Automatic annotation (TrEMBL):
UniProt keyword list: Repeat
Species annotation: Leucopsar rothschildi (Bali myna)
InterPro entries: ARM-like, ARM-type_fold, PP2A_Regulatory_Subunit_A
Gene transcribed to yield this protein: Ppp4r1_1
GO cellular component, one term: cytoplasm
Gene3D superfamilies for this protein: Leucine-rich Repeat Variant (1.25.10.10)
Residue segments, region Disordered: 1-31
Domain of life according to the entry: Eukaryota
Lineage of source species: Eukaryota, Metazoa, Chordata, Craniata, Vertebrata
Classification via SUPFAM superfamilies: ARM repeat
Protein name, as recorded: PP4R1 phosphatase
Amino acid sequence: QNMDSTLHYIHNDSDLSTNSSFSPEEERKSKVQDVVPQALLDQYLSMTDPSRAQTVDTEIAKHCAYSLPGVALTLGRQNWHCLKDTYETLASDMQWKVRRTLAFSIHELAVILGDQLTAGDLVPVFNGFLKDLDEVRIGVLKHLHDFLKLLHVDKRREYLYQLQEFLVTDNSRNWRFRAELAEQLILLLDLYSARDIYDYLRPIAFSLCADKVSSVRWISYKLVSEMVKKLYMASTPTFVIDLMNELVEKFCRCHKWSGRQTFVFICQTISEDDCLPMDQFA
């Protein structure tokens, strides 16, 4: 009983109002749930209060962001309304470390929340992270396939136009970013049609095959061979024929020795992985 009265006191005195369109009473009701003690949740939500960072711990917002998927899983998607404002506050935090933490876990949160909530509440945040600093963008890039596979096909296709942007980084020497892009594109082949692969992913793959860093190029050879395999199995044979003709034209007949070497390595990967029947390969 003593505990109940204490919790009631803390809960009533917590000023967690973040949205001026609601009265304090409505704001409080929107964050009420019955899964965990309300005072505990209120204390968690107050971690985004800037005064906490000054008086308790400068890293407190980062800790809050790190725990958020676990809190969301505990409360369940039916109580997402309790966390939504806090999530949006963290997603626009001035510290990139806080935004980076959310970027690395947004795919996990999407699984917890399901299709509708992801489309409505997470996709706008995801789009913001795509335009953020490289330290934040790498979080969404590392789990790009995990997030996009949860979206509806039409929504997923919208991101085809933005994949090219991952080739541009704040620091051009950040080759690991491009290597991660090549790894993700291999996984993304399963999510898109033959035409989309040919129109959007092929130019990026060819660009990565000519990268200055050998580690990026080696992953890209694998990417091109998987692309050949996927297009060969497609119902329209013209895509794989056009792709192979372009490989010959762009690399085999390249005036630089490095381009011709790239062609040999791609051929090696295609034959080793059995991406084509040998008569087609020949």
